[in-house]
Write a structure and sequence with these properties.
Blueprint: H1 2-33, H2 41-59, H3 62-86, H4 91-114, H5 132-135, H6 140-145, H7 149-167, H8 169-179, H9 181-186, H10 191-214, H11 229-239, H12 244-263, H13 273-277, H14 279-291
């Protein structure tokens, strides 16, 4: 029974750790399906994680903090959209600048708004309380108790994103803009507007992913909290072939490696902790090295669109 409990806790931990990655990965799906590369997912997660905590700090409500995170992520994504779409800047450079700016901004605001360096005060997180009657169910109770609300939100987000992309006219427009914007334009689709909306949605989802880290796990923000998860989400997007469901499975794979290093001692493994800590990043590199040639990005992904130019 002890081994079963460890495995159940490992699976629950995998889902909880995957939620922030799934939100950011789905954000990347929206952005890149419309033709805009979003390297800035890391920075958008940082902004979401910080402003989620700040919103909860000033209001005492985690739900308000959640709204702060989503709005802040959308606003920083709007900057990326303006640079990439309107000014036709190099999208990778723009995303990198977003990452550097976001990290510096969060560090500065911690000092200005909380009067300390490196870490904010603790705040009210999104409370997740499992009724005792469910907790007492063998195996299932332990599994459900190891989750949080963001896991359920992430699963819903995957279903909604898949439905939008492949079952709605707007999803068809998004994909047409990302594959052949000139043809989409001749059919009356506003390429600029579609890309703007998708990039902003991308930032909002990444901001929600940041809030899943801060408000959903440890209700505070500290420097380095995101720890490259935005880049892992980007790798999951590629590994998942730019599809919502594929991205989710890739996020679960990377999160399983992360959960395994957290539960390694329970399995009796005696390797140095540093070995387990690099598991998620090794799997990310192996996945990209082994599968990146087998995936197909949208044809116009990363190519700025100029109306009237052929």
């Amino acid at each position: 029974m002890g081994s079963i409990n460890i495995i159940v806790e490992l699976l629950a931990s995998t889902l909880a750790l995957a939620a922030p990655l799934i939100f950011a990965g789905l954000g990347g799906v929206f952005s890149e399906k419309s033709g805009v590369v979003n390297i800035g997912l890391e920075g958008m997660m940082i902004i979401g994680a910080f402003f989620g905590v700040y919103g909860s700090h000033i209001t005492g409500s985690a739900l308000v903090g959640l709204a702060f995170a989503v709005i802040a992520g959308g606003l920083i994504a709007l900057v990326h959209a303006f640079l990439s779409i309107s000014l036709r800047a190099e999208q990778v450079i723009s995303g990198t600048a977003i990452n550097l700016f976001s990290q510096a901004l969060a560090a500065f605001l911690i000092f200005k708004l909380f009067g300390k360096g490196g870490q904010t005060d603790g705040v009210n997180g999104l409370d997740y309380t499992v009724p005792e009657i469910i907790r007492n169910i063998p195996v299932a109770g332990r599994f459900v108790s190891g989750l949080n609300w963001f896991v359920f939100l992430a699963i819903i987000a995957v279903v909604v994103t898949h439905f939008i992309m492949y079952k709605t006219p707007w999803g068809l427009r998004i994909r047409s803009v990302g594959e052949h914007p000139q043809a989409a334009d001749t059919l009356g689709i506003n390429v600029y507007k579609t890309r703007y909306i998708c990039v902003v949605i991308s930032g909002m989802l990444a901001g929600l992913g940041g809030a899943a880290l801060s408000l959903g796990m440890t209700p505070l923000y500290r420097d380095g909290m995101v720890a490259g998860r935005g880049f892992i989400a980007l790798a999951a997007l590629i590994f998942g072939n730019w599809k919502p469901v594929g991205t989710m499975w890739a996020c679960l794979l990377f999160s399983f490696a992360n959960a395994l290093q957290l539960k390694s001692q329970a399995f009796g493994f005696n390797l140095p902790t540093e070995v387990y800590a690099i598991f998620p990043y090794i799997i990310t590199m192996v996945a990209l090295a082994g599968f990146v040639g087998k995936t197909q990005a949208p044809a116009a992904d990363g190519i700025p669109y100029e109306k009237g130019k052929r």
